[in-house]
Write a structure and sequence with these properties.
The protein is an alpha/beta fold. It contains 17 helices and 9 strands. Strands 1, 2, 3, 4, 5, 6, 7, 8 and 9 form a 9-stranded mixed sheet that branches. It binds spermidine.
Length: 391
């Protein structure tokens, strides 16, 4: 049990260290505000909203049947749409009137979205299961992204890394041994020139690729300096011709054999490994832990400023935060949860998978998330699009 909890405290330490601050004991999560108790004679408040909830989340992130279970219990119909990149979600939020009540941005984008007034403050009295969240993770989010944990509730977290089809990679590399640093497989011409034969795939998003490229060339992954993006793009240009796919369907692309090596998200790579097994593929797919570290992300639920169904949104967040639901997400989607009460319900094979619940030793190497200014994101998109077009 102790070992299972180590990861969250290690994560907190890494993030605080990255902020250049001395590690302090994690601040307690703000206790949910007590639900105002009505006088005995007053009727209980009634939710008069229409029985609808519009949710916008990443694909392959919610266990099958979970929205149906919420619908059955509450009578609230859930319209569930998906987006593939933080950029796509951000564009919808900037345009306004998205129609969504709950959205799930990565924390890198959630910070400027909070600052831009795109979300409403949570009514914590309506989310009693906030108490299930890990105080260390919530303290980290409060410090770096969402002061006082006013707007965000973690959905899951994970890391951006390299995934491989071990069988195909070994064959394509021939006598060339696997590199010590797995990022070489996707960024070093010596490797990419061989692996292009079985397919190299990158996530199709500037804010996914430029940060890992910056990290690879020894710069701050969350640099806001456009000159650094130029340096990253110069490195990327050398391998451009070897990249087969810019993918927004990475699970299928790896499991289905379109790519043998990919820059992807830890849980999605593990889902691809499971899918390949289900399909009786002989190939073994693996999420790697690069020796220089991988980039941590948090994906977080927020209620949009103009949500038409805020009460239903609070009800869904509270439902998701039940220990058994958060545990199902981890067990079936292969992403770690920030729900501490769920940890004991996680299957041993998931809790013991070092590419899902990373061990504390590896955390010391991981890169905690930060955020970018609007100008930096624009400059990054220019650098990325130039790279993609092969300019
Ligand atoms: N299948 C769910 C994928 C969620 C990925 N979110 C990643 C955000 C990283 N910047």
């Amino acid at each position: 049990m102790m070992k299972k909890y180590l990861w969250s405290f290690a994560l907190s330490a890494v993030v605080l260290a990255a902020c250049g601050k001395k590690e302090e004991p994690p601040a307690p999560v703000a206790a949910p505000a007590p639900v105002a108790s009505a006088p005995a004679s007053a009727p209980a408040p009634v939710n008069t909203e229409e029985k609808v909830l519009n949710v916008y989340n990443w694909p392959d992130y919610i266990p099958e049947g979970m929205t149906a279970a919420f619908e059955k219990e509450t009578g609230i119909k859930v319209n569930y749409d998906t987006f593939e990149t933080n950029e796509a979600l951000h564009a919808k939020l900037v345009a306004g009137n998205s129609g969504y009540d709950i959205v799930v941005p990565g924390s890198v984008f959630a910070k400027p979205q909070i600052e831009g007034g795109m979300f409403q403050a949570l009514d914590k009295g309506k989310i009693k299961n906030l108490a299930n969240l890990d105080p260390a993770i919530m303290a980290t989010l409060a410090k770096n992204t969402d002061p006082d944990n006013k707007h965000l509730v973690p959905w899951a977290w994970g890391f951006t890394t390299v995934g491989i089809n071990k069988t195909k990679v070994a064959k394509a590399l021939g006598k060339l041994p696997m590199p010590e640093n797995a990022w070489d497989l996707v960024f070093k011409p010596e490797y990419t020139s061989k692996l292009k034969s079985c397919g190299i795939a990158y996530l199709d998003s500037p804010t996914e690729i430029i940060p890992v490229a910056l990290h690879y060339i020894g710069k701050n992954a969350y640099s806001n300096d456009a000159a650094d993006y130029k340096a990253a793009a110069d490195m990327l240009a050398k391998v451009r011709k070897d990249v087969r796919l810019f993918s927004s369907t990475m699970i299928d692309d790896i499991a289905g054999g379109k790519a043998c090596v990919a820059i992807g998200w830890s849980g999605d790579i593990n889902q691809a490994a499971n899918r390949a097994k289900e399909n009786k593929s002989k190939d073994e797919i693996e999420s790697l832990l690069p020796s220089t570290g991988a980039l941590i992300f948090f994906d977080t639920m927020a209620i949009t400023k103009d949500a038409k169904h805020p009460n239903n949104a609070h009800a869904f967040i509270d439902f998701y935060l039940r220990a058994e639901n958060a545990a199902r997400m981890a067990n079936e989607m292969n992403y770690p949860t920030a729900n501490k009460a769920a940890i004991e319900k996680i299957k041993p094979e998931i809790a013991g998978n070092k590419t899902i619940f990373v061990e504390s030793d590896y955390f010391a190497k991981m890169i905690p998330p930060s955020s970018f200014s609007n100008e930096a994101r624009e400059a990054m998109a220019t650098a990325y699009n130039g790279f993609k077009k092969g300019k």
